[in-house]
Amino acid sequence: MGQSEQRAEGAGPFTTRLTWRLPDGGTAVWESRLARRRGRLSVRPSPSGPAHTVRADAVSLTRLRRLNVIAALAFVFGGALFAAGAAVAQFGSGDATECASIYFVGGLFFTLGGYVSLLQVIDAPRHVPGGAGRLVTPHWRWWSYEPTRVDWLSAFVLFSGTLVFAVDLLDSFLQGLTVQQVNRLIWAPDLIGCTLFLISGHLAVVEICHGRFSVRTHDLGQWIVAVNQLGSVLFMVSALAAYTRPATGSLVNADIANWGTLTGALCFSLAGFLQLGEHS
Questions:
Q1: Model pLDDT, residue 130
Q2: Can you give the pTM of this predicted structure?
Q3: Helix 188-209 with 150-171: angle, nearest 10 deg
Q4: Read out DSSP for 194-219?
């Protein structure tokens, strides 16, 4: 046998790090985020020797860089537009249609970022358990169904959240709605989208921490995950404050709703900017 699996780490049914023993006594370590974002595999040729990084092939690395740039910029622009829409709403410099238009364009960027993030998972280089510690590039796919992978599930839930937000953003153009219709067509999808963002962020934490929460200030990936999750929390605060009271027809707290959206959007924009540095 070329290799035998030595240890699998993760949480629940999800595996985020695998360690194999090599025929010469060394080890190979695969981590899902490093392989997906940077195309890297760590190999220690012998028990006493230094570890070195094995990279995916040039085709895969080029693919990873392009997908990473597209996803990162989509979140940078999407977050910036959401922040701009919230600022217009808060400071009263535009009408409801103008705010809805800004949010809608920002939502298109968020949806693009969510889908490209899913493509990063689907088309990431894969480890080869039977090989001598290497990564291979799969054939390009636009879709796959892999719910047993935590990275796929996190990206899929994120993308689903952006699609739900799209329903909310489209409905926000409707005029003459009753309070009940506003809560059902606009507020409810907003709340569901925020919930999906929080779930996606939690799964990303599980992936990068391998099921055991830890703080590594030098780890750029962990900073990105943390900032994104903070943005999701702020979006949820905004959504809860944006509920329209049936008795009065007013929001629970318009200021919190606007500032929650603005600061949460800036978090996603910042995380996208940081993601530009997370490349192979």
A1: 55
A2: 0.90
A3: 160
A4: HHHHHHHHHHHHHHHHTTS----TT-
